[in-house]
Design a protein that fits this description.
The chain is of the alpha/beta class and 264 residues long. The protein is built from ten helices and ten strands. The strands form two sheets. A six-stranded mixed sheet has the order 1-2-3-5-7-10, with helices on both faces.
Length: 264
C-alpha cells in the first residue's frame, strides 16, 4: 500500500484502488487530499500496469465535499476565492478522471455531498450502497454547484430534475438515483465493495484499448452531430481493428476459449 494518509493507494491485478481516507471528516477535501487524489489519477494515466481504477471512501461516508473547517467567516479576514480553489484543485482532478482512457469505477459507500457527489458522477460506472445518498448541498450555504455538477446532472437527468436537486438540496437515495439513471446500480451495503471490485477486475482484464476508445466516443456524443459521430466511430474503429486485442478477441472466439487481452 502506498500514497499519503489522505488517499490510500493499492494496485493489484491491474486495478488501482484509490480510497479517500479522512473518515473522521466524512472524507471531505483539504489541499493534501486533493493533491493525493491527483497523484493517484495521474499514475493511472502514466502507468501501463494500471488497467482500471476503483475509487471509494473509508468509513461511513464517500465524500462530504469541501472541508469547511478552515473557512469559518467568524474568524475574520478576506472572503475566500473559491474560483481559485476550483481552478487549482477540483477542476484538474475532474479533467484527469474524465480524460482517462481506462475504466473508472466509483463505489459510493455512504453520503456523497456537494463536490463529493459530483466527483463520483464524473466516473464511468457508479455503484452505491443502498444506504448512500447524493446531496447537492451547495444551496444550503449559498453556493452554486461545482466540480462538474451542473454538467453531469443536466446531461444525466435533464433540466427539470437537475434544477430540483440543486435548488432544494434534497437528498437523493441510491435506489432512486439508479432508477433515474444517475448511477449504474444500487447494491446491498454489505455487497458493495465485493461487487465493485469484481467489476473493476473484469474491466481490467478486458480490451482496455477498445474500452478507452469507447469512452472517448460516448464523451463526444453530447456535442457531435450524427455525421460527426459516424466519422469518429469509423476512425476509432480503424484503430481498434488494428489492435492486438482485436486479433486476440477474434482468435479466442474462433478457438472457443477465454480471451487474454493486453490493452494493446
Amino acid at each position: 500500500m502506498t500514497g499519503s494518509e489522505t488517499v490510500l493507494v493499492t494496485l493489484a491485478d491491474g486495478v488501482l484502488k484509490l480510497t479517500l481516507n479522512r473518515p473522521d471528516k466524512l472524507n471531505s477535501f483539504n489541499e493534501e487530499m486533493h493533491l493525493a487524489l491527483r497523484a493517484g489519477v495521474e499514475r493511472a494515466h502514466s502507468d501501463a500496469e494500471v488497467r482500471a481504477v476503483l475509487l471509494t471512501g473509508a468509513g461511513r461516508g464517500f465524500c462530504a465535499g469541501q472541508d469547511l473547517g478552515n473557512r469559518d467567516p467568524r474568524k475574520g479576514g478576506p472572503a475566500p476565492d473559491l474560483g481559485h480553489t476550483l481552478d487549482t484543485f477540483y477542476n484538474p482532478n475532474l479533467r484527469l478522471i474524465r480524460s482517462l482512457e481506462k475504466p473508472v469505477i466509483c463505489a459510493v459507500n455512504g453520503v456523497a455531498a456537494g463536490a463529493g457527489a459530483n466527483i463520483a458522477l464524473a466516473c464511468d460506472i457508479v455503484l452505491a450502497a443502498k444506504s448512500a445518498k447524493f446531496i447537492q448541498a451547495f444551496a444550503k450555504i449559498g453556493l452554486v454547484p461545482d466540480a462538474g455538477g451542473t454538467w453531469s446532472l443536466t446531461r444525466l437527468l435533464g433540466e427539470a430534475r437537475a434544477k430540483a436537486l440543486t435548488l432544494t438540496a434534497e437528498p437523493l437515495g441510491a435506489e432512486r438515483a439508479a432508477d433515474w439513471g444517475l448511477i449504474w446500480k444500487a447494491v446491498e451495503d454489505g455487497d458493495l465493495m465485493a461487487e465493485a471490485g469484481a467489476l473493476a477486475l473484469s474491466l481490467a482484464n478486458g480490451p482496455t484499448l477498445g474500452l478507452g476508445l469507447t469512452k472517448r466516443l460516448i464523451h463526444a456524443a453530447a456535442t457531435s452531430s450524427l455525421d460527426q459521430q459516424l466519422d469518429m466511430e469509423r476512425d476509432l474503429q480503424q484503430i481498434a481493428g488494428r489492435s492486438d486485442d482485436y486479433a486476440e478477441g477474434v482468435t479466442a472466439f474462433l478457438e472457443k476459449r477465454k480471451a487474454e487481452f493486453k490493452g494493446k
